[in-house]
Amino acid sequence: MSYRQSLQNKFRTVKKKYLEEHPYCEIDLLLGKEIPATDVHHITARWDTEKYLDPNNLVALCHYHHLVIHHQAGSLKEQKMVARLLEKIKERKDENPK
Question: What is the dihedral sign for C-alpha 47, 48, 50, 54?
């Protein structure tokens, strides 16, 4: 098994555990809604291998907000709002790492 495959397998395990611990979209929670999370997004780019498996670098999202973050859905206004909320989540995680 290659290093990359090994890392991807480890991430699947981390992702599953993260979604179990964070069952709702963290963006929607800030908006007062409980929408089930289906995706996990890396706050800092995935290619930063030091943070790839770090739960403090992850955020649980519904599929729609994951698309918005990657500019594949939503208006520019919504993309900016979601980017601000994602920054707020990052700040909270930086202040209170697990």
Answer: negative
